[in-house]
Write a structure and sequence with these properties.
Length: about 150
């Protein structure tokens, strides 16, 4: 296979063979990291499901209690009773908002914990080997500071 300049292009099969020749060295670590990644994805989905299920339950409760409060307020014998029914409903609404915030915070903490999970120690070293830019950037920062 050649290009317009009559230079031979690399054989894609040869390139893949060379790339996979180092696979046994990193295969176990890669497998461990991939398993961790997909298990964490599943945990994140479980967390999102728990949050959304609770949110919908609270919204259903909110509509039911709002309807009950509206009926009670309309049937109240005096303004004081109507205000008390409204106040009871508003207290429940505030409690649901607080429950939403707590559930959201829990979901965010679960997500951060899952996303911050470290790679295996072997992969940490491999990444340092193949990312020389980090050391080059730190050298540039030192030169710029001088």
């Amino acid at each position: 296979m050649t290009n317009q300049d009559d230079r031979k292009l690399p054989d894609p099969f040869e390139v893949m063979q060379r790339a996979y020749s180092v696979w046994p060295q990193i295969g176990d670590a890669a497998r461990e990291n991939l398993q961790t990644f997909w298990k964490n994805q599943d945990k994140m989905l479980d967390s999102m499901h728990e949050f959304s299920r609770g949110w919908f339950e609270r919204r259903h409760e909110a509509t039911k209690t709002a309807l009950d409060a509206a009926n009670c307020m309309c049937g109240a014998q005096n303004p004081i009773d109507a205000v008390q029914h409204c106040q009871t409903w508003m207290t429940g609404a505030a409690e649901r908002v607080a429950a939403d915030a707590t559930a959201w915070q829990k979901h965010l903490m679960n997500t951060v914990e899952l996303l911050a999970a470290p790679l295996s120690q072997e992969m940490q070293g491999r990444i340092a080997e193949v990312t020389p830019f980090a050391s080059a950037r730190s050298g540039q920062a030192k030169d710029a500071a001088a």
